[in-house]
Amino acid sequence: MTLENLEQIALLLPLKRSEVEFTQLVEKARMLQIDSKRCELSIQSRFHLAYEASFALALAALRWHGYRPSNKRYVVFQALSHTIELGSEVALLSKAHSMRNEIEYDAEPFDDIKFLEELIDINEILLDRVPLLQ
Fold this sequence. Notes:
The chain is mostly helical. It contains seven helices and two strands, in the order αβααβαααα. The chain has one domain: Up-down Bundle (Four Helix Bundle (Hemerythrin (Met), subunit A)).
C-alpha cells in the first residue's frame, strides 16, 4: 500500500513540508536515543525513550513526504516501508507500538532487555536514513 493509498483510506492527511520541523524531530530523536542507552535508568524508562525516538524519526520521514497521521499513531511506522524503504524492521516497530499502548493504557510492566536492544539498534538505522531525506 502506498502513501497515496493510505491517504485515500484516511489514515494519512496531506501536510506542507517544514524543514524546521523535520530538523527538530530528528534532533529530538537523537537526544531520546542517547538517553535510551543510559543503563542507570530503569528498563521501562529506557523503552519509553527508545519508542519516542522511533516515533519522532518515523514522523519526521512521513512529514518530509508531505503527510501526517490522521488519528492513528501506528501508521507512522507502517509508512516507513515507503518513506525510507525500511524492511522487516517495521514489524518490530509495530510491536513496540503495541507494547507502548499496553504500558500506557493497561499498566503492563516492561522487562524485555533483548527487545529494547533491538529497538535501539533499529533507531540507529533510522538515524542513519531519515536525515538523508533532507
